[in-house]
Amino acid sequence: IVAGLKTRKNRIGYVAAYKIPECIRGINAFTLGVQSVNPDAVVEVQWTNTWYDPKVEKEGADKVLAKGCDVIVQHQDTPAVQLAAQKGGAFCIGYNFIPRKVAAPKSFLTAPVFNWDVFIVDDIRRILDGTWESRSYWEGLDTGIVDLAELTDLCAPGTAEMVNDARNRIINEELYVFEGELYDADGNLRVPANERMTDEEIKNMTWFVRGVNEEL
Fold it and tell me: Please, are residues 8 and 70 in contact by the beta-carbon 8 Å criterion?
């Protein structure tokens, strides 16, 4: 939503690590968020095949900048993409433990953040009381483990209101991101109208939604 409202060229770059379900579902969810406020925008994906390599990440950012992207997102663990975005006159959305605007204050809009203490404290309590067991943790916004960093004043007017509305509708189960009709990037219907993808289908996602352009 933040990127979709900010772009003026309707081209958003996404510098991603590996072509695995974790990254693919993140790209898809991001793209569906963009399309919810800007159906004309496309997301250009550039793979780096690394989680941590500033040089390669910068090269990926430069490639999507060369395609005319004016907002760049990352699924990487260094600020290299943010720095490249600022140098190239684009805006950026950070990731993970580098969410704040320190790296690129003239470009930074926000970032997804992961509050791992929510998970760790609960697990430690289970260990102490003897109830711990291996589990798949698949929780959402209502737990506080995932959120967005504070939006900066570089965001488009009205962004905070639209983000908060979407957040509340997700928590209240009024908005389900992977609900049909959903078409893949080749135009094939993947999720029929009013149907929802299951957790297992989302966890094992290997296809891109319409609006994603990717390049290895």
Answer: yes
Contact predicate 59/80, CB 8 Å? no
Mean pLDDT of the chain: 95
CA-nearest of 174, 180, 172, 186 to 201 is 180
Other beta carbons less than 10 A from residue 57's beta carbon: 27
Res 216: pLDDT: 58
Residue 155's SS3 state is coil
Contacts of 188 (CB under 8 A, 6+ apart): none
Q: What is the spatial distance between Cα 208 and Cα 43, in angstroms, rounded to a whole number?
A: 11
The CA dihedral of 12, 57, 97, 171, to the nearest 10 degrees, is: 30
**Token pair for 81:** 């993409």
Is residue 79 packed enough to be buried (19+ CB in 10 Å), middle (13-18) or exposed (0-12)? buried
pLDDT digits (tens, 9 = 90+) for 158-213: 999 999 999 999 999 999 999 999 999 999 999 999 999 999 999 999 999 999 99
